[in-house]
């Protein structure tokens, strides 16, 4: 365990989360895997009662903009999210394992790792920083050349924000007015 790591919870701020697949392998490259992740994210959102403000699932990492959960803390919610997805994905891989598959999946099965151990957490204190992080999240697939416009990437909250089209994860469900955003002095 890393010493000196402190996570500051309890102030009611939003958190910009980044977590990567083990060794930055593109374990989320398949659409079915991204769909599975979003399904598990929605289940974790309901179970721990946090607000998802924005998200994007990329081939080898994810970005989330979340409130603090009503149940537990953000570290616990992220642990459950990552473990729940990893267990389901590894189970699917074992069931459908074909010796002719890519070495990428063989590595994941052998190592039993889908995610890097930790996650990056940035506390979002202001409305400007919230908007900056949302823009960063939604532009990520565009910057990578995966799509031309943010709303073309099906595994982000961009469609919900730009077109009002709900996705598999409920965005800004309740607590919208309760989120604490400190104004810049």
How would you summarize the topology of this molecule?
Blueprint: E1 14-20, H1 31-48, E2 52-57, E3 61-66, H2 74-95, H3 103-111, E4 120-124, H4 127-143, H5 158-163
Antiparallel strand pairs: 1-3, 1-4, 2-3
Helix pairs in contact: 1-2
At a glance:
This protein has 185 residues and is of the alpha+beta class.
Mind explaining what this structure looks like?
By secondary structure, the chain is of the alpha+beta class. The protein has one domain (14-178): Transposase IS200-like (Alpha-Beta Plaits, 2-Layer Sandwich), CATH 3.30.70.1290. 39% of the residues lie in helices and 13% in strands. It contains five helices and four strands, in the order βαββααβαα. It has a four-stranded antiparallel β-sheet with strand order 2-3-1-4, sandwiched between helices. Helix 1 (31-48) packs antiparallel against helix 2. The longest helix has 22 residues, at 74-95. It starts with 13 loop residues before the first strand and ends in a 22-residue tail after the last helix. Residues 174-180 have low confidence and may be disordered.
Give the CATH level 1 class. Alpha Beta
Approximately how much beta-strand content do the residues carry?
Answer: 5-15%
Estimated structural class: alpha+beta
Give the helix proportion (percent range).
25-40%
**Can you name the CATH architecture?**
2-Layer Sandwich
**Which value, in Å, is the CA radius of gyration?**
17 Å
Give a count of the beta strands, DSSP E runs of length 2 or more.
4
The global form is: globular
Number of discrete helical segments: 5
Please outline the major beta sheet. 4 strands, antiparallel
Secondary-structure element series:
EHEEHHEHH
The average pLDDT value, as a whole number, equals 84
Query: Widest sheet: strand order?
Result: 2-3-1-4
Unreliable runs: 174-180
Oligomeric grouping of the chains: single chain
